[in-house]
Each structure stands twice: as C-alpha cells, then as structure tokens.
Design goal:
Helix content: 25-40%
Strand content: 15-25%
CATH architecture of the largest domain: 3-Layer(aba) Sandwich
Number of helices: 11
Shape: globular
Number of strands: 9
CATH superfamily of the largest domain: HUPs
Order of helices and strands: EHEHEHHEHHHEHEHHHEEE
Length: 282
C-alpha cells in the first residue's frame, strides 16, 4: 500500500493505474475508520480494480472549533486498517497542503444545502463541497463511494458532480449498524456509556416509522410524530429535528411515496448524531 501526501503524486499514481486499464475507486473519509468505512472500501473493491482511501479531517466543514478539536484522528490505526482491507493507496494530505497560503476558492452547493443540516451547521456543506472537489481532483477516480448515513451530503455530492461535469460515478452504500441498531459513526466513541445505551433510540424511531408505513400509513405528519414521540421520550436525547423529505430535492413532503426518507438529528450529551431511513411508499 502506498501513502501519498501531495496531490500531484497522488494524481500521477491514479492516472498511471487508469492508463493500464484499471478502474480506480476512491473512498473519501475523515479517518477514525470503523466497520462502516470498511464497507465502503469493500464496495469500492467490488466495483474497481484499484482502491484509494483519503484521510483528511477537513477544518472547513466544522462550524465549531471545539467539535473539530475533539474529532478523533488515529492516523496510525487508520493506515493499518487500510492495509488489512487491501487498500492500494491512501491519500492523507495535511491542512497546509490542502489549503496553502492564498487559498480562496470554494464550491457553493446551492439550494440542497439550505435545509436540514444546512441552517444548523452554517458553512458545513460549502466546506464539504470544496474538499470533495479537491479530493476528487487529486485522486482522479472513475468511481467515488460514500455512505448513506450522511444522506444530505450524498445528495449534494451527486448534484455537484453532475452540475460540474466531473464525469465520476457516485455510489451510495447503506448504513452499517451495531447489533443494537446504532449507526456506525466516528463520533460514537465520544459517547458516555449512558448516552451510548440511549442512542439506539434513533434507529428504533426509524424502525417504527417503517413499520407504520408497512401498515399503510402515508401521512408525513404522522410519520414525523411517531419518530418525534419516541425520541423525546428518551431523557438522554435532545431532538434537533425529524424531517420527512423527498430523496432527490430534500424538500419536505406531505405524503410518503417511493423516494421518501426520514432524516433525524439529535444530541446525546455533547455528541450530535444523525440517522436516516428511506421508506417504502409503494
């Protein structure tokens, strides 16, 4: 496994592999790799001949300095995990490489970033769109793989890649969960034992929404109330939002149809977790 820090050498390696007829896939991450990330690597391996993992904790997408400072960054463990997973190359630039003196260009994600997470985290998706564009430029892949846990991010990236004619296939991979249903996240390690025990209420709320939908419930307000009541009944959870939206536009819907998702954000102590589920509206 090769490790690159500079974008030029990373790009040369990737283009060299593609010139040999190899299909190159990339898995962009912020490190602190867990089973969810490794599922993305597995999917990239299934769809590609060569797999790159990027590891970069992007300061542009944190609107709170304390959140950035507390984000886990176990780079040595991440490199071991990548090698064990059969990753061919890791791109791990420093902040000074990504954003050198004089850097001033950003990617504005548009209307899709104006709802859900957007108002709660000002500038977050601007930072995401900018760093993903730079990572895709440095790794020059045929394919990029993202997790569906960051659902809004996935929708924004798909739109950005299409709008900017980047010519890269974007693949979304279903959420990987612990045995109790909690979505895998690098932030989970920050939970206290009591908050960790409470956090699966998010997945239980989503399961209750799915069960209601299977029974024939189609009212988005009713689905919202089901999730809200369950989460608000958990004393260690502080609900930030439950939204029932169209999976393409991210706009709120009145009725559950094919292509409807429930998105949730809640706090457990000082840790903010998100989760989601696409509902079967047939």
């Amino acid at each position: 496994m090769q490790v690159f820090v500079a974008p030029d050498t990373m790009r040369m390696w990737s283009l060299g592999e593609r010139s040999k007829g190899h299909r190159v896939g990339v898995v962009p991450t912020m490190g602190a790799l867990h089973e969810g990330h490794l599922a993305l690597v597995d999917e990239a391996r299934r769809r590609s001949d060569r797999v790159i993992v990027t590891i970069f904790v992007n300061p542009l997408q944190f609107n709170q300095s304390a959140d950035f400072a507390s984000y886990p960054q176990p780079i040595d463990d991440d490199l071991v995990a990548c090698e064990r997973a059969g990753v061919d190359a890791v791109y791990a630039p420093t902040a000074s490489v990504m954003y050198p003196p004089g850097f001033q260009t950003h990617v504005e994600p548009g209307d899709l970033a104006s709802r859900l997470e957007g108002p709660k985290r000002p500038g977050h998706f601007r930072g995401v769109a900018t760093v993903v564009t730079k990572l895709l430029g440095a790794t020059a892949p045929d394919l990029a793989v993202f997790g569906q846990k960051d659902f809004q991010q996935l929708v924004i990236i798909r739109r950005m890649v299409a709008d900017l004619d980047l010519g890269i296939e974007i693949c979304g991979v279903p959420i990987v969960r612990d045995a109790d249903g909690l979505a895998k996240s690098s932030r989970n390690v920050l939970l206290t034992p009591a908050d960790r025990a409470a956090a699966p209420v998010l997945s239980r709320a989503l399961a209750a929404c799915a069960a209601a939908c299977q029974r024939g419930e189609r009212s988005a307000d009713s689905i919202n109330r089901i999730a809200t009541s369950l989460i608000e009944a958990e004393p260690r959870a502080t609900l930030e939002y439950v939204d029932v939206v169209d999976t393409t536009t991210l706009r709120a819907v009145d009725r559950v149809e094919p292509g409807t998702a429930v998105l949730i954000a809640a706090w457990f102590g000082g840790v903010r977790l998100i989760d989601n589920l696409v509902l079967d509206g047939d």
